[in-house]
Write a structure and sequence with these properties.
The structure holds two protein chains of two kinds. Chain A is an alpha+beta fold. Helix content of chain A is 51%, strand content 18%. In chain A, helix 1 packs across helix 11 and helix 2 crosses helix 11. The longest helix of chain A has 33 residues. Chain B is 30% helix and 29% strand. In chain B, helix 6 packs parallel to helix 7. The chains are: A alpha+beta, B alpha/beta. At the A-B interface, helix 1 and helix 10 of A face helix 1, helix 2 and helix 4 of B. The complex binds adenosine-5'-triphosphate (ATP) and magnesium ion (MG). Adenosine-5'-triphosphate binds next to strand 1 and helix 1 of chain B.
């Protein structure tokens, strides 16, 4: 009977494709929007991910994220270094500046001053040249996303001169970094050099990045730093979460994506529900005949379930393939750099598909079960 | 109860609710249907023919009365038992054929066997044998909408007989057909459906085929007013 059920469904090409479209569309919308949402809010932590060596981030107690920060007195560095369990500690400066490009445009950039000696605070990999180019005079390294922003016409950024807060800067390398939430251009330079670019306020030590000695946990050392210095210290995971939370709390992004996901679900219920009901209504006489001939209600439930399962499996697969294709097609676009589909998301959309089909299948099924077999003689 | 009775209906009353009031459609019908005969149920529109055969074949509960089909009191069975009883004992032919549009003629004719759990291959083979008897085995692989009305009704007849039921029930089998194909379908039905151990009830308006009946029951306002081998004079 399941074979008959499947043939009944696939034989009605228009409705079959309508159902597949409904499920695939919902899956695509939910999966794709959740993927973009997760990747986007994770950008709130890009500053943390781009400094992979730092195990503990130390900051002024009012600082919240890598970008929402308040500088500390320069004595903080030595205080952190004197805390037991701190293997190393380096200064880290984050500030904003204006840059005048070759064409005369003014652009806001983030300046990140990394430790002169170790270059800790830079992303792990470079797209072109090496980190050591920072030793050359007036050297800055630009992030790869920034290249797209600053050199839209495809010019080679290496060797380009910039005017950074009226100071000379020369791009000598491109870093492979995760774009920030705002996709702002990032320029890495040595800490000592960064002090020249950022106009003098008294305190210009935004963070102290620290590593912990073997046998210590980052959380334990962070607690000890807080106790001993009165500064705020967070492990890299905590600080990454803080960056994500900041985006979630301070932007309309969760609401907007939430609305789209709910819409995807509602549209799925609407399309699938209508099409499924139409399909059942068109076939109600046949179902009635089957019931009269001697097909039990439980077999009818099995038939409609098989139809729903087929639509669900194929539609869901199409939707997921669509999302993967979408992400893949845009992988060359700097905005989508590093996008991935967390494994939980396909499960969420699968659950949504199951719920859509359970609701609509049940509604459709009810009319079949309520059909009197005697109605076939009318 | 008569030994060769296929159906034994006693005191059948059926009421329908129409708004506030209750309409009595069948007023206590007592009748037996015998195997080996083709029994026609005729009467004016609204006289209760469909209601009566629906009750006799186990798809409509009587308000009062008892129906035995081959000795089984069918309305004392549980729902599932009754469904399985129909599957094993009764073949149905509907006015609108009610074939499944997306499977071919052979598969449509094989539906009762498939419902009984037979594999599709052998079920289709059996169905095709029957389609041969009905002279449409060459149409076995066509979809219902590629067949004429007469051909579709022959596929429906094959579906009603393929599992060798002991009772065949038809409601207006020729109503959707023109005169000549209606006549041909009924000739064929008589040829393949009538057997010594099988009963066949046909509801019809179609006076062109009355001569094919072994027995004619006339229903008027929910009562049997004539029971004989021919039509009464005044009809
Ligand atoms: N489900 C129902 N609900 C209410 N009334 C019904 C129902 N089924 C039948 N009736 C009524 O019962 C009466 C007999 O109906 P039935 O269908 O048995 O007549 P029939 O002899 O088959 O007529 P026709 O030749 O037009 O098919 C009619 O008056 C009809 O309106
Ligand atoms: Mg009728």
């Amino acid at each position: 009977m399941l074979w008959i059920a499947i043939r009944m469904l696939t034989g009605d090409a228009q409705k079959f494709y309508g159902l597949l479209f409904g499920i695939a569309f919902s899956t695509l919308l939910i999966t794709q929007q959740l993927t973009i949402f997760v990747n986007l809010i994770e950008r709130g932590a890009s500053g943390v991910f781009n400094a992979p060596e730092a195990e503990v981030w130390v900051m002024d107690p009012v600082s919240r994220t890598t970008d929402v920060n308040y500088a500390m007195p320069s004595t903080a560095l030595d205080e952190v270094r004197s805390v037991p369990g701190v293997e190393w500690a380096v200064p880290h400066l984050r500030a904003v500046a204006s840059v005048r490009t070759g064409t005369g445009d003014l652009e806001g950039v983030a300046i990140i001053g990394v430790d002169d000696a170790t270059l800790i605070g830079m992303p792990e990999n470079m797209v072109s040249e090496t980190k050591s180019v920072l030793s050359q005079p007036d050297s800055v390294v630009i992030d790869d996303g920034g290249v797209f922003n600053l050199f839209e016409n495809g010019e080679d950024p290496i060797g380009q001169r910039l005017e950074l807060n009226d100071q000379r800067a020369v791009i000598r390398g491109v870093a492979d970094s995760i774009p920030s939430f705002t996709s702002q251009v990032v320029l890495y330079t040595k800490y000592s050099q960064a002090l020249n670019y950022v106009p003098g306020t008294r305190n210009r030590l935004t963070f102290v990045l620290a590593g912990v000695t073997e046998g210590e946990t980052a959380a334990g050392v962070a607690d000890r730093i807080e106790e001993q210095t009165g500064l705020k210290a967070e492990t890299r995971e905590e600080f990454a979460d803080a960056g994500v939370d900041f985006i979630v709390e301070n932007t309309g992004i969760p609401t907007n994506f939430g609305i789209t996901v709910v819409l995807g679900f509602v549209v799925g219920v609407a399309i699938v529900g209508l099409t499924f009901s139409l399909f059942i209504r068109d076939n109600i006489k046949q179902f009635g005949a089957l019931k009269a001939i001697g097909v039990t209600n439980s077999k009818i439930v099995g038939m409609v379930s098989a139809q729903a399962a087929l639509v669900g499996a194929v539609g869901y697969a199409l939707g997921v393939i669509g999302t993967v294709t979408f992400i893949w097609a845009f992988s060359g676009n700097p905005f989508f750099k590093g996008f991935y589909i967390p494994w939980q998301i396909p499960l969420i959309s699968l659950a949504a598909v199951v719920i859509i089909l359970a609701i609509t299948g049940w509604i459709a099924l009810r009319s079949v079960l309520n059909t009197e077999p005697a109605s076939v003689f009318r | 109860m008569n030994a060769e009775s296929a159906i034994c209906a006693r005191g059948i009353i059926r009421d329908f609710q129409a708004g506030q009031s209750t309409i009595r459609v069948l007023h206590g019908i007592d009748t037996d249907i015998r195997s080996g005969e083709m029994t026609y149920v005729v009467g004016e529109s609204g006289s209760g023919k469909t209601t009566l055969i629906s009750i006799m074949c186990g798809i409509l509960w009587p308000t009062e009365g008892e129906v035995q089909v081959f000795g089984t009191d069918i309305y004392s069975l549980s729902d599932t038992e009754l469904v399985n009883f129909r599957l094993n004992n009764i073949g149905f032919i509907f006015q609108q054929y009610n074939l499944i549009p997306s499977i071919d003629a052979a598969s449509n004719a094989a539906v009762p066997l498939i419902a009984k759990g037979m594999a599709i291959g052998p079920a289709r083979e059996k169905a095709i044998e029957l389609l041969e008897k009905l002279n449409i085995s060459d149409q076995a692989n066509k979809l219902p909408n590629q067949l004429s009305g007469g051909q579709q009704q022959r596929v429906a007849i094959a579906r009603a007989l393929v599992h060798e039921p002991r009772l065949v029930v038809c409601d207006e089998p020729t109503a959707a057909l023109d005169a000549s194909s209606g006549r041909r379908v009924m000739d064929l039905l008589r040829e393949v459906a009538v057997a010594p151990d099988r009963a066949c009830i046909i509801v019809t308006h179609d006076n062109r085929i009355f001569d094919l009946a072994d027995r004619i029951l006339v229903l008027e306002d929910g009562r049997v007013t004539h029971d004989g081998t021919d039509m009464p004079e005044d009809h």
